[in-house]
């Protein structure tokens, strides 16, 4: 779930992203408050983010407040084929809490797969891509 708190400009916003618990409840729900910048050129589209402290979005008791270091995604357009692109994702989360490193490292790949699966579903639903 993502809640948008403040839009500075059409391409700059603050949002709170919440995750569900993971690994059969071993990892509690998390939330992240990020400053996000979106850029588009003729060659690419990118989202760039970093966590911030935002007074209008205090921590809540049912989520552990995580932190995203500089992160983002860039979608590079293929000039020869407008129906294809190359997607590069960089994440550097600190999910906080008292979890062993191996539990965290085993959970992140699954959450990324889930993210991109949901992204694909949303893009199909909006008619942005076909099956």
TrEMBL record:
GO terms for molecular function: lipid binding. PANTHER family: PROTEIN CBG07384, START DOMAIN-CONTAINING PROTEIN. Keywords: Lipid transport, Lipid-binding, Transport. Transmembrane segments: none annotated. GO terms for biological process: lipid transport. The keyword Transport applies. May be involved in the intracellular transport of sterols or other lipids. May bind cholesterol or other sterols. InterPro entries: StARD5/6, START-like_dom_sf, START_lipid-bd_dom. This is START domain-containing protein. It holds the Pfam family START. Residues 26-128 form the START domain.
């Amino acid at each position: 779930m993502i809640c948008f708190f403040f839009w500075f400009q059409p391409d700059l916003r603050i949002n709170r992203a919440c995750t569900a618990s993971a690994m059969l409840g071993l990892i509690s729900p998390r939330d992240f408050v990020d400053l996000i910048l979106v850029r588009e050129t003729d060659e690419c589209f990118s989202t760039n983010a970093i966590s911030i402290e935002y007074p209008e979005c205090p921590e809540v008791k049912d989520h552990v407040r995580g932190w995203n270091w500089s992160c983002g995604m860039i979608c590079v357009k293929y000039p020869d084929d407008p129906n294809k692109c190359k997607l590069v994702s960089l994440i550097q989360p600190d999910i906080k809490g008292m979890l062993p490193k191996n539990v965290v490292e085993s959970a992140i790949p699954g959450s990324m797969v889930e993210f991109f699966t949901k992204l694909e579903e949303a893009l199909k639903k909006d008619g942005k891509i076909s099956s």
